[in-house]
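Hi all, long-time lurker, first post. I run a small reading group and we've been trying to get comfortable going from sequence to structure in the token notation. Rather than ask abstract questions, I figured I'd post a concrete chain and ask someone more experienced to write out its structure so we can walk through it together at our next meeting. Sequence below, copied exactly:
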Amino acid sequence: MTHPDLPPARPPGRRATALLLVTAALVGAVAGWAAVALASHARAYCDAGWEAGGRFEMTFLLVLMVPGCAMLALLIAFLSRRLPPWSRPVPVLLVLAVVVLVFFASKGTLDGYPGNLERCGPDNVPPWWPGWLPA
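-- Answer (accepted) --
Happy to help. Here is the structure in token form:
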């Protein structure tokens, strides 16, 4: 019997879904920041595209990437609600990993840009970047 003054009880699982959505948004924001930080570090290390215009570009992209990745992660988490609970984070993490890699490959390694050839090759891929990952 329910009391008329009490709000209706929530169905089970809503709290877990809300926690997943909030966590996905936070992880997405961190992934956006990490993508820009990784690309900035590569540019600074190779001294390619790290003049005032390049730093402004990275700062501007930071303002776009953090909320953009958070919204993307939120969307993927919302679409994966029907998956079993143990596998819900997997699509979010896979999509964010692809976004970070593509961002690094397109913005962090400026192929053909005049950089420090003693530290990096002509493709401006830093030596600390794993060779098995695309750049």
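A couple of things your group might point at:
The first helix runs from residue 14 to 46.
Residues 36 and 104 are 8 Å apart (CA to CA).
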